Amino acid sequence: MTILIDNRSGAPIYExxxxxxxxxxxxxxxxxxxxxxxxxxxxxxxRISVITTKRAYEELExxxxxxxxxxxGSFVAARNEQLLREEWLREMEEHLLSAxxxxxxxxxxxxxxxxxxxxxxxxx
Length: 124
Description:
Layout: H1 13-26, H2 39-46, H3 50-62, E1 66-69, E2 73-76, H4 81-106, H5 110-123
Antiparallel strand pairs: 1-2
Helix pairs in contact: 1-3, 2-3
């Protein structure tokens, strides 16, 4: 599990951990049942507060991404297909908004953008 903290980011550190772990789970990089580092271990490795790491793990558990067994640790939960689909839809919306903004800057009409999309479909 790789986590990179960006101190210049406007996002809180716990949120950065949450997002990176969640993405690794949804991408399949972290498989179901994989043990996560202990809260203390991760805090030490990232040189951050245990409280910050604990909050990230609590958020991951609340989102259904991980589960914790007292005395054993935290593990990647089974992938919820509905949750996975929602994540992909959210990611697709972000990309489409970026494409829409680029099209606006290039002066493309909606029809021209759709033609471009259709031509990409034909290539696949």
